Amino acid sequence: MKKFIILIIFILLFTSCSKKDLAPSQEKEVASIEKYELTFYDTFDTVISAVIYSDDEKKANEDLNYLAKRFRELNALFDRYKSYDGVINVKTINDNAGKKPVKVDDTLFNLIKTSKEDYIKISSKNNIAMGPIIDVWKAYSDKYIEGKTKEEVKKLMGNYLPDQKYLETLRKYTDINKIILDENNNTVYLEDPHMSLDLGSVAKGYATEIVGEELRTRGVKSALISAGGNVKLIGKPLDGREKFSIGIQNPDLNDENQVFAALEATDISIVTSGDYQRFFDLDGKRYPHIIDPETLRPSDNLKSTTVILKDSGLCDFISTAAFLSDEKDISKLAEKTDSKIIWIDNQMNIKYTPGAEKYIVKGD
């Protein structure tokens, strides 16, 4: 069994031309520009990395510290497992399911509202009311991750894997329409006490979008933010290159080449969902963390999906929906959202919707 993996490999190719390789006119332009970096591990259960290009070291480091502070604040707000002093978060909402509405701040309210609207308008395959089902699968996943054998898991849980009949009894608690939002009072109410929200399929992208746009407001002209497969680019790199380089992770973690495909882009978001990010293996089959709301089971439909669009939050929503879709529905998603989608199928073939090819770096 292979332990589930949070994507630690920084799938960003920070390769850049050296200043000595620049034309004289470019040399002068980038002479005072330096690259400032920060990486931390204590938010959103993943690695957060950021790069800012600037000619002002003090300001760049202030902006990186601001970024880290905001990610930690948003992580606390969107957390469903832990309480924080003075923070009304997703756990607070879940703890009050079937009891009373919970007044939340604008950021959390807007994320829940947007996720409901996207479920209706874009795809029902990304459902933030899947908490009860996710909890069941997480309980099994945690046991396998701890190193328990299938026999030990069966002894502890009653089965090797969640029983489908039991999962079906929980389906009624995943009705997104029973998330009641009161815009006048900024309250969220879960109608059934067995309901629980899980924002894992949207929170990192939404947080990355917020932080990126706040950095832009603070005057940042060139930056790259990566939050566990969620990449937001601000402007272009100021080191002489015209575009940032980003790598799509190879789903085969045993392959020496961990970059499956290289992309080049500027001032846009690129978000990937994959079966290699969080998973457990059992009897040669991989069980990823992404649960299909229709089957109530982890999807083995694809290896990964990558969405390219301006808004990182919307990218995050679409990437999960696309991962749970077939080729026809992926094309519909791209058309409906004006996004570009790249996916790797189970035969390790790379495919993409029209327009995505302009971002893919062609091999020799």
Description of the structure:
The protein is an alpha+beta fold. The chain has two domains: 34-81 and 201-279 and 287-359, T-fold (Roll); 90-190, ApbE-like superfamily (T-fold, Orthogonal Bundle). Helices cover 33% and strands 22% of the residues. It contains ten helices and 15 strands. The strands form four sheets. Strands 1-2-6-7-10-13-14-15 form an eight-stranded antiparallel beta sheet, with helices on one face. Strand 1 and strand 2 form a beta hairpin. Helix 2 runs antiparallel to helix 8 (203-217) and helix 8 (203-217) packs antiparallel against helix 9 (312-323). The longest helix is centred in the N-terminal third of the chain and has 22 residues, at 57-78. It starts with 23 loop residues before the first helix and ends in a 12-residue tail after the last strand.
Q: For the residues shown, what is the average pLDDT?
A: 91
Strand arrangement within the widest β-sheet reads 1-2-6-7-10-13-14-15
Morphology call: globular
Rg for CA atoms: 21 Å
Sheet with the most strands? 8 strands, antiparallel
The CATH class designation of the largest domain is Alpha Beta
Structural class: alpha+beta
Q: How much helical structure, as a percent, in the residues?
A: 25-40%
How many domains? The number is 2
Question: What is the total tally of β strands?
Answer: 15
Q: pLDDT below 50 for ≥5 consecutive residues: which ranges?
A: 1-20
Instruction: Name the CATH superfamily assignment of the largest domain.
Output: ApbE-like domains
CATH architecture type of the largest domain: Roll
Helix count, DSSP H or I runs of 4 or more residues: 10
CATH topology of the largest domain: T-fold
**Series of H and E elements:** HEEHHEHHHHEEHEEEEEEEEHHEE
Taken as a percent bin, the fraction of beta residues is 15-25%
- The quaternary organization reads as single chain
End-to-end separation in angstroms reads 36 Å
